[in-house]
Design a protein that fits this description.
5-stranded mixed sheet; signal; alpha/beta; ABC transporter substrate-binding protein; NMT1/THI5; 327 residues; 13 helices; SsuA/THI5; 6-stranded mixed sheet
């Protein structure tokens, strides 16, 4: 299933509830259970495995939580709803968090789901592009501009290629089809756990250039964000949520095959060859301690964006992220 297909499917959805928690406990103070609404960054996929498994195996319930997982029709919506207090938490991206905090949104990172970048620049393995230097004079497909363009430019400059020396082509989210069909020489903004598997499924081998090896500071790809202004009121529930995610992640790592069977059983639409490959590709990327914070990582990326003129001023770490495992 190509990225184009996946995104179009998601765009056809309104706010779709997935794998809801037990309804008996919702909003019932006497039950000792806390209800949380958590919005995904997109429709369900293997990157969300710890949440699905925590729901399926009753881990959230054991931690006194009734968690409602919500899939958005528009991936730009979750941070806005968190900022407006309409949902408790959302899955988002560290690079976007820096920009949103700079814009004044009351958002803060409270946990990490995927602890490495997923973003890559991708070419066909049968092309003459063996390094980023070989992209000079080539065409590069992209889906959205903004921070992805900043990351690509940093990669190019790190390899002595001026951004003006490449042709940028908007392929409207059809990253894999555009590359397979040789409409572009490369694509940026692809995810290493999915697009390589999608290409292999179509019989085309890909070659990836990993951004953290090409001059971009490493970062957390997927994070949990909450409203900074109301954080103290929900700190206990969020701490229990991260403990549940940590428990589910450990179980997945210990039981990857059983985990895949449980994951695909949660929704028949998830049972695809690409998702199965993505499942195993994603497992090593999960944060083993979701609540723990690598402050240097956030400070380094903040400095990177400031140097590139993407933010107006450097925000202190306390405005960007918190470590719920610390008092």
């Amino acid at each position: 299933m190509l990225r184009l297909t996946r995104r179009l499917m998601g765009a056809c959805l309104a706010l779709v509830l997935i794998a809801p928690g037990p309804t008996w406990a919702a909003d019932d103070d006497t039950s000792g259970t806390t209800s949380l609404k958590v919005m995904l960054d997109w429709y369900t996929n293997p990157s969300h495995a710890p949440l699905v498994i925590a729901q399926q195996r009753g881990i959230f319930e054991r931690h006194g939580l009734d968690v409602e997982l919500i899939s958005p029709a528009d991936p730009s919506v979750p941070p806005k709803l968190v900022a407006a207090g309409k949902i408790d938490m959302a899955i988002s991206y560290q690079p976007q968090l820096h920009l949103q905090v700079d814009q004044g949104l009351p958002l803060v990172r409270v946990g990490t789901l995927i602890a490495t970048p997923l973003n890559i620049t991708l070419v066909r393995a049968d092309s003459d592009i063996e390094s980023m230097k070989d992209l000079a004079g080539k065409s590069i497909g992209y889906s959205v501009g903004g921070v992805e363009e900043v990351l690509l430019n940093a990669m190019l400059e790190h390899n002595g290629v001026a951004p003006d020396d490449v042709e940028m082509v908007n392929v409207n989210f059809a990253l894999t089809p555009a590359l397979i069909g040789e409409k572009v020489d490369a694509v940026t903004g692809a995810f290493r756990n999915f697009e390589l598997a999608q290409m292999a499924q179509e019989g085309v081998k890909g070659r990836a250039f990993y951004i953290e090896e090409e001059g971009v500071p490493t970062y957390d790809e997927l994070i949990f964000i909450a409203n900074r202004d109301t954080l103290d009121a929900h700190r206990d529930a969020y701490t229990r949520f991260m403990a549940a995610i940590e428990e589910a992640t450990a179980w997945i790592i210990n039981h990857p095959d059983e985990g895949w069977e449980a994951f695909k059983a949660s929704d028949p639409a998830l049972d695809t060859p690409v998702n199965e490959k993505a499942w195993y590709n994603t497992i090593p990327r999960f944060a083993l301690r979701p609540a723990a914070l690598d402050g240097q990582r956030y400070e380094a990326f903040e400095s990177f964006l400031l140097e590139r003129g993407q933010i107006k001023a450097k925000s202190p770490l306390s405005r960007l992220a918190v470590d719920l495992s610390q008092p």
